[in-house]
Structures are given as C-alpha cells and as structure tokens.
Amino acid sequence: MSSDRIRWSHKSLEELRTFWNVEIEPALRRNGHDLEERPGYQDLLEVGYGGIQDALRRHHGMTLSEFLEGVGYPDTGSIDGYQWEIEDATTIDELEGFLRTARRRRGLSEHTVRSKRTRLARFARLYRRLHERAEFVDRTRTRDTAPEENGRTMAVFDELDRQLDSPESKLHHLSDVNDFYTYLRTVRNVAVYNPVANFRDSVYEKWTRATPERANRDPPALETAQVRSIVSTCEDLEDRLLVLATCAWGLRRGEVASLHHDQFVLSDDDPRVVFGDGRKNGPGSVTLQYGVTDLECRLRSLSERDSWGGYLFPSRASRTGHISPDTVTNRFKRLAREAGVVVRGEIPTPQHGRRFWYRTYLDAVQALAAQVEHVAEEQGSADPRVVVENYLGEEQARKRRRTVMREALTDAFGGSVNSEESSRKTG
Q1: 199 shares its domain with 229
Q2: Is 51 helix (H, G, I), strand (E, B) or coil?
Q3: Is the pLDDT of residue 219 over 80?
Q4: How many whole angstroms separate alpha carbon 336 and alpha carbon 86?
Q5: Could you tell me if 241 and 203 lie in one domain?
Q6: Which of 6, 153, 166, 311 is 20–30 Å from 137 (CA)?
C-alpha cells in the first residue's frame, strides 16, 4: 500500500496506532529493519509510509518521536551516565549488571541495550511510584514475600497496560523484565523466584492475542529453486554478486551496499569479509562459503578502472562512493520480479535472501548432527550438536559444516563445489 493512497487525515490516533502494528511494522520488518531498534522518518519513507509524520503533526498535534514513544520505541539517549531515578542502589547495580551481560556476553548492539534499559527503567520507576520504593530485587530473596510481590509486579503491568498503546510494546516490557528476573535467579543466584514467570501465558495472554502472529510479521526464507530463478536473471557479474552477498553470505542490505575491497580476506583457507566490532548483533567477520571466484573476478575488473574507490558496488552519483541500501533492495526486487518469484503475494526483498542463508546454515548444522547421531546415542547425549564438537573437534566440525553448506549453495547458484574450490586454488 502506497502512502499517497492512504487517507491519513481520516484516521484517529487509535487507528494510526493499530495501523502501525498491523501494517507499518510488518513492512519495516520485510524491508530488513530490526524492530528492536527505533525507526526513523527515512525508514518509513523507504516502505511507503512517510505520510504518517505529516498526519501526526497536522491532525493530532504530535511529533513522530512522540508517537513512536507510545507504540514502544523510546527515545534513548547516551549509554553512559544514565539516571534511573529510583534511588535504590541494590536495584540499580543489578539492572546495570544485567545490561552489561546483555551487551558483552550476548553480543547485543548498543542500541538494543539502550532500548532494553529504557523499558526496564519505565518498569522500575512505575514500581517505585506505586509501591514507594523500588526494592523489587531484595523482595525476591525469600519466598515468604512471593504472594505480595506477585501482586505488586502485577499492579505495575496493569498500569503499563493502561499507559502503552501497542500490545507488542507491552510484551517487550514484560519480556525484558522476565529476562531480568531470570538473570537474578540463574546468573546472580540472588533471587529465589521470578514473580512474572507466568504472566505472559496467564494474566496478560491478551497481549499475545492482540499482537500479529510472528508468521505474519517475519519474512520467510526464499526456497532454493527461487534463488536459482533469481540467479538465472542476472545479466552481469555485479547482479550475481548482489544476490551472492544476500543469499550466500547472509549480509544485510546496508552491509552489501558499502562493501569495500579492504574488508575481504582472501589470502588463506578461510575467505571472509571483516566488519570489525561495530557490526549490529552479529560476529565481526563472515566466512564466504561460496562465490569467492566471482568476487575475485569482480575485484580484478574494478581494479582496472582509473577512478575506482575500492567499493564492490560503486556509484558515481552518490557522495559516499557506493550505492545506497535502497538501491540494493530495488535491484534485488527487480531481479526477483524478472524471475517471476513471489513470496506471500509480494516481490521478495534482500531480507528474504538473508533468511535463505540463515536457514541453509541451520540445515547444515542439523545435517552434520544427524551424521553423528549414533555417537550421541552411545554417549547418552540428548543433543547431537554437542557431540559434533566433542566427537569431531571444533576445527573438523567447522570444515564439515562448510562442506555441507557449500553443497547447498552450489545447488542454488549452479556450478559445482569442485570447480569453485579448484578455481580458488589455481587463481
């Protein structure tokens, strides 16, 4: 649905919030936006819903930022020097410890951690307002307080139910608070119970019912035959590499757009693209399981240009020197459209290709686990994936996974595994 065909002025504020949940958020997700992160006006323009900003200002006296706050996207500030405003040192120490763990051990991005912090702070401040002191850490140290504490936390979420507009936002708050209490129990061993453990499936099950099903929000993975069809429409090496970068390397569209030759390490047995420590919610480098031969050919061709700036997808019209994420999406959709590929009635985006890569990787892990399942049974292990590491060793397990995945990618992109490997060895 295009923004210019939406009668924004006829929608009440409540209708706009509902429209956000059922139309705009799924569109953002399909376009590759991480819904853990606050979208901006440019993100809305990219999915055709930029008109909401003017409608909010003209008809509701509200900024886009204020609207986003009401549907669960807080305006987060600096990660340092945060003011919790609850005046309980023990609770603050535990909250900050939980967030440090989320950032360092779980590898969450700074933006995601800030969003979690804002939701936890809203819970903590509301708890203090309703119950005088934010002592919800100390009150979980003994089961004697459990009935009263369950009631206190329920009162907080009852108030959040009234304050927040989006059911999905309410679930985000409940999920973060539940994770915090789980951290207190299992990591810190300072809590003996979790007062919100059963809230989602019992007390606040209505929030789940009111939230669009994940199957309707998450873009599905492309099928192997669909990737093969898209590849068949590629007219040149540049098109093929764009499909490789999304479907075979699993990169986000913004990462694809700005790929630079300095990021590629192709001189050893572990060809990879390096992003460093700033990559959002992912490892600092990605192994190139397939397509290295095409990549090397493209880099050689570009290096012969007089004014090449080093980008894999250069653009003379762009101030950055490379194509934009929107261009990646548009080119991918053009190829898919020419191939006649449709997913749930829509032309697929790079996000569908990235999910193909992810599903292919999981299939490779499961296939390798199945190969050693008999060993797992002999060892009495319920999880063959653990036996893969113990039985084969980390290095051998990694090589076997890559072989399985390379075979799957070869099926999608054509050619043969042997020709891909021999070209690299002789190149």
Answers
A1: no
A2: helix
A3: no
A4: 53
A5: no
A6: 166
- Which strands, in side-by-side order, build the sheet including 285-287? 264-265, 272-274, 285-287
Question: Which residue, of 36, 70, 104, is where some domain finishes?
Answer: 70
**CA–CA dist 393, 427 (Å, integer):** 30
> Would you say residue 171 lies in a domain?
yes
Contact of 157 with 175, CB cutoff 8 Å: no
Q: What is the CA radius of gyration of the chain?
A: 25
Which residue is it, tokens 């209490």? 181
Whether 59 and 178 map to the same domain: the answer is: no
pTM over 0.85: no
Query: pLDDT averaged over the chain?
Result: 82
Query: 37 lies in a domain?
Result: yes
Helix intervals (H) in 72-164: 89-104, 110-131, 146-163
Q: Are 175 and 75 a contacting pair, CB within 8 Å?
A: no
C-alpha distances in angstroms, 71 versus 1, 75, 251, 350?
21, 12, 29, 26
Predicted confidence (pLDDT) per residue in 141-199, tens digit: 999 989 999 999 999 999 988 887 677 788 889 999 999 999 999 888 899 999 998 88
Question: Which one, of 205, 122, 184, 206, lies nearest residue 156 by Cα?
Answer: 122
Please tell me the distance from the alpha carbon of residue 295 to that of residue 245, in angstroms, as a whole number. Answer: 10
Residues of the domain holding 35: 3-70
Backbone angles phi, psi at 152, to 5 degrees: -65, -45
Assess whether 202 and 260 both reside in one domain: no
Could you write out the three-class secondary structure of 302-356? HHCCCCCCCECCECCCCCCCECCHHHHHHHHHHHHHHHCCCECCECCCHHHHHHH
Q: What is the CATH number of the domain that holds 394?
A: 1.10.443.10
Residue 329 has pLDDT above 50, yes or no: yes
How many folded domains does the chain comprise?
3
How many Cβ atoms are within 10 Å of 280's Cβ, its own excluded?
17
Residue 76, in any domain of the structure: no
Whether 101 shows a pLDDT value over 70: the answer reads yes
Distance CA 203, CA 213 (A): 19
> In this structure, are 395 and 249 located in the same domain?
yes
Tokens of 82: 């945060």
Tokens linked to 284:
């600092």
Q: Which residue has the tokens 């892990």?
A: 365
Whole-number percent of the chain with pLDDT over 70:
81
Supply 412's token pair: 């999608």
Which of 197, 163, 156 minimizes the C-alpha distance to 180?
197
**Contacts for 101 with CB less than 8 Å, ≥ 6 apart:** 183, 187
Q: Is residue 84 part of a domain?
A: no
